[in-house]
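Page 42, continued from yesterday. The earlier attempt failed because a stray header line got pasted into the input along with the sequence. Redoing it now with the clean sequence only.
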Amino acid sequence: MSAENLIFSIQKGFGDTLGSLTFIVVFGAMLGKIVGESGAALQISNSLNRLFGPKNIIWAVVLTGFIIGIPLFYTAGFVLLIPLVFTIAAVGNFSPVYVGIPMAAALSVTHGFLPPHPGPVALASIFKADLGLTLIYGSIIAIPAIVLAGPLYGQFVKNIKCAGGPVKSSVHPLELPSFKTSLFTAIFPVLLISIGACLLPFLTKDTIVYNLISFWGNPFIAMLLAVIAATYYLGISKGKSVKEVMDLYNTSITEVSLILLIIGAGGAFKQVLIDSKSAEYLAEIFRGSTLSPLVLAWTMAAIIRLALGSATVAALTSAGIILPLIQSAHVSPELTVLSIGAGSLMFSHVNDAGFWIFKEYFNLSIMETIRSWSVMETIVSVTGLAGVLLLELVLAS
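This time it went through. Structure tokens are written below.
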């Protein structure tokens, strides 16, 4: 490629990718920030803890991680829930790792499988997948992945002891919002997107009802409405000034800026692969393979994840490479998104920031972190692939 064409490809890929994603990612970060800082996430955690009771507390942790993980990015959700993990462990005389693994599994699954997280949203844009269907399929696959990697695998690591205590949460609200308000604002965008995905296939196009549901169910509009609702119910109605709420949003946008650059860079790389015909060449190599395109997509993402560490980078890089093969094979774009998302979570180790976050918060050795965190991520990844392949069989029948 000439230098001029190379620059054009980079600009086109960067712009095309971020053009449809920026608002969703930014609004998602804003929603996550106010859900966390207002105490809504803490209220959800405490309420589920009381609801499930001591005997089923691990399942409360799983459900809390899943609900909190939908609007919050992984790191934000982890830092927010870690005090709860140590409190539950102390009260029930459990190992903190035994309680922490289910929480981390739930957060990891939502991060890798479900919109509005950046990876799944970016992949959906690349493969032109329906975000509503991706959310529904991802939620179905998420359940066995979380159960196997969380409560069940947690039984095998419950003897791992922590050398220290938790880092205190920065969230200390004077007055927590109610459980109903907290839960409603956290899952509001998911409800709108899911309702649209479920109802639209059964409605007549160009009717008022169809247009309204299509409008509200659009991920961009759903996230915008969720932020507006959260601004009032978790901010203004709780005595915060508009300036205080806007300061929170300014911070959230700053925190997500690097993620946006990574997504844009992944889109630029994808476009260079397409315009230089490199992707077609790689696709031609794999075209003779007897493996399912979904397995190939998962494998590509898993290899890049092992090499580079970042789940988002692994997902976007593998997407650019595998795109021509998927297009020629006529595979479900939604299942492709989930297959790559599962592969991008494969065996997190020392080159992944998530590995070190888990290690340092639980004060573990390298080997203890591999035995707990890395194996948990591998179970999530493999279970995700199995779920994708089973869904493919169900949809084909």
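Notes: Residues 3-37 form the longest helix (35 residues).
Reminder to self: strip header lines before submitting.
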